[in-house]
């Protein structure tokens, strides 16, 4: 393992920011610390960097125990959200700033800067000043500066959050490409789910100072371990599961839904929650054979509202016989399908909740379920 954190705990007065978290990162891997504000992800990154002391636990980089070393001894590169470039230095001066005092000649430093600026797509920017560059270009310079020292670990602290949407999309692919080409071990901190999914090899999902799931992006999305994980990454419909005489069912209006086999048995009073993503709610088109007629969980519903999202519509569905807000279901439907079926507000239709796409969360309660109207 190239980077290891063992039982790291950090408190600020009465507030516990990190609850003895532990994880490992392979050499050349990009791992994302993902979670809502206040979950401890930035604190964890600062502990790795040596910018924040921790109360207990140990940090290893490249096999060295760096737990009590200053940042200058850890050989880490940091890219901040705010770029943090020196406005009075040229781009070349910013990139070579950390190389002074390392025994390199002026010519070697200039060559090093030129090579890195070429890698980040700014080969002609060396003599410019930060104020002459766009936000995206400044962040590229910050990345080149962080890489100039050939760091053992590259730390990216929400590096794209200050940029506009189009620049973010372009730059995240460029950063990932550069990281792979150089093979540098990287830790990315973000609250942006899409950024984490597209850039990370592995995601550590955090909540309340703890790591609640450690998985690849696709595994985290397809197999969330908790209601929190399911609701934070993407959208999820949640339905409470009830047990009556040891048989488990979930409800949508008056309809009783079949649940996955692993939930079929349990003691009366057992609590559980069932989840299904909006894109997995299938609309039944008569005569098109899209849904097998033997598939359980076919429901009669009414489109309460449609929200246009470009290629997709987010539909809010309620049970045909009338429904409270708690029984609403969201479905993502292609714009082409909406047009073909002539769907609109008030349309009556049938949907299927495929058993294979249902997620069971044993022990979860209604209170743990996120607001489904915000799906």
UniProtKB/TrEMBL annotation:
A family per Pfam: ABC_tran
Biological process terms in GO annotation: quaternary ammonium group transport
Alphabetic keyword roster: ATP-binding, Cell inner membrane, Cell membrane, Membrane, Nucleotide-binding, Translocase, Transport
Ranges for domain ABC transporter: 3-233
Keyword check for Signal: no
InterPro entries membership: AAA+_ATPase (IPR003593), ABC_SmlMolc_Importer (IPR050093), ABC_transporter-like_ATP-bd (IPR003439), ABC_transporter-like_CS (IPR017871), AminoethylPonate_ABC_PhnT2 (IPR017666), Mo/tungstate-bd_C_term_dom (IPR008995), OB_MalK-like (IPR040582), P-loop_NTPase (IPR027417)
A GO MF term: ATP hydrolysis activity
SUPFAM superfamilies: MOP-like (SSF50331), P-loop containing nucleoside triphosphate hydrolases (SSF52540)
NCBIfam families associated with the record: PhnT2 (TIGR03265)
Listed name of the protein: Putative 2-aminoethylphosphonate ABC transporter ATP-binding protein
Organism: Desulfolutivibrio sulfodismutans
Taxonomic classification: Bacteria, Pseudomonadati, Thermodesulfobacteriota, Desulfovibrionia, Desulfovibrionales
């Amino acid at each position: 393992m190239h980077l290891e954190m063992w039982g790291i705990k950090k408190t600020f007065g009465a507030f516990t920011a990190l609850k003895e978290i532990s994880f490992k990162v392979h050499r050349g891997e990009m791992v994302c610390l993902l979670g809502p504000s206040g979950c401890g992800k930035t604190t964890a990154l600062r502990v790795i960097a040596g910018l924040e002391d921790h109360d207990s636990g140990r940090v290893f980089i490249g096999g060295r125990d760096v737990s009590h070393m200053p940042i200058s001894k850890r050989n880490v590169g940091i890219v901040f959200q705010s770029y943090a470039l020196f406005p009075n230095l040229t781009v070349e001066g910013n990139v070579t700033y950390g190389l002074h005092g390392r025994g390199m000649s002026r010519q070697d430093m200039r060559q090093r800067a030129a090579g890195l600026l070429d890698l980040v797509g700014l080969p002609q920017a060396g003599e410019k000043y930060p104020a002459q560059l766009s936000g995206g270009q400044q962040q590229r310079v910050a990345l080149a500066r962080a890489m100039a020292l050939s760091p053992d670990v590259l730390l990216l602290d929400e590096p794209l959050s200050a940029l506009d949407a189009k620049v973010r999309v372009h730059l995240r692919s460029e950063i990932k490409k550069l990281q792979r080409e150089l093979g540098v071990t990287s830790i990315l901190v973000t609250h942006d789910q899409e950024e984490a999914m597209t850039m990370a090899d592995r995601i550590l999902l955090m909540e309340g100072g703890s790591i609640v799931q450690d998985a690849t992006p696709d595994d985290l999305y397809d197999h969330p371990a908790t209601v929190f994980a399911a609701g934070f990454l993407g959208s999820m419909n949640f339905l409470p599961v009830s047990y009556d005489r040891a048989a488990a069912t979930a409800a949508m209006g008056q309809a009783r839904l079949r649940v996955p086999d692993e939930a079929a048995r349990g003691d009366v009073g057992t609590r559980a929650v069932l989840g299904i993503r909006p894109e997995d709610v299938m609309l039944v088109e008569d005569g098109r054979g899209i849904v097998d007629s033997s598939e359980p969980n076919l429901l009669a519903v009414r489109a309460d509202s449609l929200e246009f999202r470009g290629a997709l519509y987010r539909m809010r569905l309620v049970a045909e016989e009338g429904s409270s807000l708690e029984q609403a279901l969201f479905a993502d439907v292609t714009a082409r399908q909406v047009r073909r079926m002539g769907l609109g507000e008030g349309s009556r239709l049938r949907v299927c909740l495929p058993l294979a796409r249902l997620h069971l969360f044993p022990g979860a309660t209604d209170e743990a379920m996120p607001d489904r109207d915000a799906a």
